[in-house]
Amino acid sequence: MSDKPENKQGVASGAEAGRAARSDRESTDGAARASANAADESRSRFGLPDNLRPTLAATHGSPIVKRLFDLTAVLAGLWLIWPLLVLIALWVKLDSPGPVFFRQVRVGRGGQLFRIHKFRTMQINAEAAGQLTVGADARVTRAGRLLRKTKLDELPQLLDVLFGDMSLVGPRPEVPKYVALYPARVKEVVLSVRPGITDWASIRMIDENELLGKAADAEKMYIESILPQKLDYYLQYARSYTLWGDVQIILATLLKIVSR
Fold first, then answer.
1. Reduced 3-state DSSP string for the chain
2. Do the strands 167-169 and 196-198 form a parallel or antiparallel pair, or are they unpaired?
3. How far is residue 77's CA from residue 81's CA, in Å, rounded to a whole number?
4. Going by C-beta distance under 8 Å and a sequence separation of 6 or more, which residues neighbour residue 218?
5. Is residue 165 within 8 Å of residue 114, measured between CB atoms?
6. C-alpha torsion sign, points 136, 137, 139, 144
7. How confident is the model at residue 130 (pLDDT cuts 50, 70, 90)?
8. Is the pTM above the cut of 0.85?
9. Partners of 122 in the beta sheet?
10. Which of 4, 7, 181, 234 could lock onto 171 through a cystine, CB 3.0 to 4.6 A?
């Protein structure tokens, strides 16, 4: 008689364990479905090609380690290249009227807006004619042509990394106009990390301006062709970044710039 209550308790405990296990599986399956839905929605909205499908595994490095790496690298970099920054600033100022820096509102982590730093490469008030730079854009200054080709105009973004608005590596920060086109789930994933100075999209699509220059409708081509490809790269990075992966991207960026 005394064994029956114990057996009932054992059965109850086993049932609770089973329910807990099922709950965990359902939670895991739900997360996987959410990731898949984000990828499917982005492809549906923009027609993303299958060969650029984002990795669904949400395994990435520590944000704290990434931030410490950013700070260490940026402080060392600024100490080494500050003479170059001063020379470029003087060149920009003497080459054409206007400020040394170009400041533009971009969308950062969590949808927070910030003003990005770049060396000015265009005539003042150039944005009035559009936010895309297309081909041999007449608005680009003489100094700006070389700065853009060598990506030296991006160096002031080291300050944005120092201030915490950006990272050395991450999805490139877009203007609000184009972020508004991101599918909701895709936006949530992409904006979960700090935007970066460089990423695989920046490397593999480095000739974006030239492509836009050949298009009959540059705005349409950017939205329907280039932006979808960028989003795939952004999704892959946000879900699977690592410190070693960041180092590889930085080295690949330097190699790409030198080889141009």
1. CCHHHHHHHHHHHHHHHHHHHHHHHHHHHHHHHHHHHHHHHHHHHHCCCHHHCCCCCCCCCCHHHHHHHHHHHHHHHHHHHHHHHHHHHHHHHHHCCCCCEEEEEEECHHHCEEEEEEECCECCCHHHHCCCCCCCCCCECHHHHHHHHHCHHHCCHHHHHHHCCCEEECCCCCCHHHHCCCCHHHHHHHCCCCCEEECHHHHHCCCHHHHHHCCCCHHHHHHHHHHHHHHHHHHHHHHHCCHHHHHHHHHHHHHHHHHC
2. parallel
3. 6
4. 132, 134, 212
5. yes
6. negative
7. low
8. no
9. 140
10. 234
**pLDDT single digits (tens) 223-247:** 999 999 999 999 999 999 999 999 9
Question: Which residue in the block uniquely carries the two structure tokens 């944000």?
Answer: 63
Q: What are phi and psi of 167, to 5 degrees?
A: -125, 165
